[in-house]
Amino acid sequence: MAHPGYDGMWLPTDQDPRMQAGPTRGERECLVGYLEHYRQTLALKCDDLTAEQLATRAVPPSNISLLGLVRHMARVEQSWFRRVIEARMDIQRLFQDEAEDAGFTFPDADDDLVRASHALWQSEVAYAREVLERTDLDAVVDVHGEPTEVRDIVVHMIEEYARHCGHADLVRECIDGRTGQ
């Protein structure tokens, strides 16, 4: 059976932007490295697809699609970095309306919606990077009345992306047969 891509992989290993040049040094570099790896993985899963493909809900009855995952992760980035770490609870959460289902439900997908969704996600990622750059991992923030270190939020973000990248693997494989590395 022929595998799409590079024997089923996204890129040749030496061209994978997620591959680090060497071992990490210290906790912050390690945690940020894993978070960036999964952010890039979600972006790779969305590469070279049409709006219709990105909106495909490939694992019925779930409403998970690649476009929904991008929108959902914009919401997650915004919530943890703006609302929780910066304690800006006055900001309304993205896709808060019940009909939007945390970003997974959206109108018919077209190129404009795809561009807007990716731009929103990338802007929230960029903002989150800035917040993380200036915030000590030992800083304590309030999470639902519980004091929580920022490092725990970063670990949670890694877990959130890793879980959803697993979903993205399944959706992408249903769309065009490509599996992940």
From TrEMBL:
One Pfam family per UniProt: MST
Tree of life domain: Bacteria
Family matches, as InterPro entries: DinB/YfiT-like, MST-like
Protein name per its UniProtKB record: DinB family protein
Region feature Disordered, mapped onto this chain: 1-24
